[in-house]
Design goal:
single chain; alpha/beta; 7 strands; Arc Repressor Mutant, subunit A; 2 domains; five-stranded parallel β-sheet; 228 residues
């Protein structure tokens, strides 16, 4: 049986390229593609793909927040975040957000195929250079982590990070506030009311222990949270 895949990226050329590559594999089947988060959520809801390839550099709320929202809406969906540059910190945040894998757009097509198959099996995929560092994130104790790459065993669950105190929606609001969005623009991007955004904003500041957006930006910088 084929592994069903959805592609979410705002660049048509990337979507078409990935779709063409996957068509060469008998066990991989693209069931849809989307160019923005809203289309992506609808696609995942309707097509129920096993794996969703999401671009980290997605316009709007960003790939990380989009991945988190996909998993929130469809817990069975397995997100594979595709990034331009190699970053262990970004990979760690991706797994914390609920993604099951992190692949680089500079990797070979064979690596992409493997990443999709690994994620579809319920395991975690990381590029070799990042997997080597992942062993320091969290060990299971008995050596039977829930993911692997090139012999490195580790767990993607409960990876401690500064934003663990926030809910999925609060993280989205946090990320957009740090990027300079207003309550109104956040409301439009997330499809919620400005009043609800303000409620989330208040909770975010209380949980993190700050009193202004400037303090949020400083918090992000202090904890090396790359949200550009």
């Amino acid at each position: 049986m084929s592994i069903t895949v959805a592609i979410l990226d705002d660049r048509q050329l990337f979507r078409e390229g990935v779709k063409l590559l996957l068509s060469t594999q008998i066990d991989l089947k693209v069931v849809g593609e989307a160019s923005d988060p809203a289309q992506g959520y609808e696609l995942v809801c309707n097509a129920k793909p096993q794996v969703v390839v999401v671009s980290e550099e997605l316009n709007g709320v960003g790939g990380l927040a989009t991945a988190r929202e996909i998993v929130r809406r469809e817990p069975e969906a397995r997100v594979l975040l595709a990034a331009v540059s190699s970053s262990a910190d970004s990979a760690r945040r991706a797994l914390t957000a609920g993604a099951r894998g992190y692949v680089l757009k500079t990797q070979a097509s064979a690596d992409l195929f493997e990443a999709i198959r690994v994620v579809a099996r319920g395991e975690v995929y990381l590029p070799p250079e990042i997997a080597a560092q992942a062993t320091n994130w969290r060990h299971d104790g008995n050596g039977s982590g829930n993911g692997h790459r090139n012999g490195h065993r580790f767990s993607a669950d409960h990876i401690a990070e500064p934003l663990d105190v926030l809910s999925a929606r609060e993280r989205q609001v946090f990320e957009l506030l740090v990027r300079g969005h207003t309550n109104g623009s956040i409301a439009g991007l997330l499809g919620i009311s400005a009043k609800t955004v303000d409620t989330h904003r208040t909770k975010v500041m209380r949980k993190i222990g700050v009193h202004s957006v400037v303090d949020l930006v400083r918090f992000a910088a202090r904890n090396q949270l790359s949200l550009d």
